[in-house]
Design a protein that fits this description.
By secondary structure, this protein is α/β, with parallel strands linked by helices. Helix content is 28%, strand content 17%. The structure holds S-adenosyl-L-homocysteine.
């Protein structure tokens, strides 16, 4: 691989020894890295990466030491503290440290906690946002996270809290009434309870839903289903995390926007999936 650094065309920031850059790697496809992420990969002495970061992305940092920091059981909070303190140690040892996290570091990724620990230890940081799976992963499935005919708001929720249970603090009734489209991270384990909460709060059994696993990678799988059948359909399709679950009528847009399915030149299944009887131009 050519190793051109610095990148052309911009006054790229330098990753200085003793600094930690906390960086989003996007949902999987290396092409969804930002140029700031690439700039960081090119300079790092050490890259500490999570389970959700595709290994191919590390090829952009051949000069760096690669350290896997995925969680392998044990107490998540203790492990998280270990990771944060490891970052502190590496920075104090004068390394140029790149902390690479899946998606966006500040979206359900504990990036805020890691950054806080670093700041508390007087380690200088930079934050590099990334494309979050709940937006980019759905886009790769042909599902726009907002669409004018469907929703004026979208709610991103986590299906887990710190203890691994469904978040007791979430007010599913308000979420259900307040948001036409609900995007759930880490929702696979508790999808039965989540679906039951939403149905109890008045969402329709026939409401469209989609599950996108390992989104944006070559293993991406998309299940189109409904709120009433999502649990059995996930089981029947043997779907495994990581998955983004989207509840709402924007899922129907996949019938016209499944661009990966159409790449072979197939016609879309339905040019007017919302039944508006008009095309986008006449709206
Ligand atoms: N910071 C990440 C989210 C971390 S939480 C982001 O912004 O995307 C981990 C959860 O993210 C997973 O359980 C899953 O719900 C979702 N996720 C991350 N990458 C994904 C992918 N490639 N495909 C589907 N879901 C993904």
């Amino acid at each position: 691989m050519t190793h051109d650094f610095p990148l052309p065309g911009h006054d790229w920031p330098m990753l200085q020894p003793g600094w930690v850059w906390l960086c989003g790697a996007g949902p999987g496809d290396p092409g969804l890295l930002t140029l700031h992420a690439l700039n960081a990969l090119r300079q790092a002495d050490v890259v500490i990466y999570d389970a959700l970061v595709q290994e191919a992305i590390l090829d952009w940092a051949p000069q760096a030491e690669h350290i896997y920091a995925g969680k392998r059981g044990g107490k998540p909070s203790a492990k998280q503290r270990d990771i944060s303190l490891h970052l502190v140690d590496l920075a104090r040892a004068g390394k140029r440290v790149l902390r690479l996290k899946g998606g966006d570091p500040f979206v359900f990724g504990r990036g805020g906690e890691e950054a806080q620990t670093l700041v508390q230890h007087n380690i200088p940081i930079r934050i590099i946002p990334g494309i979050s799976a709940g937006i980019g992963g759905l886009a790769y499935a042909g599902i726009p996270v907002t669409h004018r005919d469907v929703n004026q708001s979208v709610t991103f929720v986590t299906g887990h809290d710190q203890s691994g249970n469904t978040p007791g603090s979430l007010d599913w009734t308000s979420i259900s009434k307040g948001s036409q489209v609900i995007v759930i991270y880490m929702g696979m384990k508790h999808i039965a309870q989540i679906a039951a909460h939403l149905i109890a709060a008045g969402r329709s059994l026939s409401e469209p839903a989609a599950v996108v696993t390992t989104a944006t990678t070559k293993d991406q799988q998309v299940l189109e289903t409904t709120l009433g059948t999502i649990v059995e359909d996930i089981a029947a399709a043997n779907l495994e995390p990581p998955a983004i679950i989207c509840i709402g009528r924007s899922v129907l847009m996949r019938q016209v926007l499944d661009w990966q399915g159409m790449a072979a030149g197939d016609a879309p299944r339905n040019l007017d999936p919302l039944g508006r009887g008009r095309s986008a131009e006449s709206a």
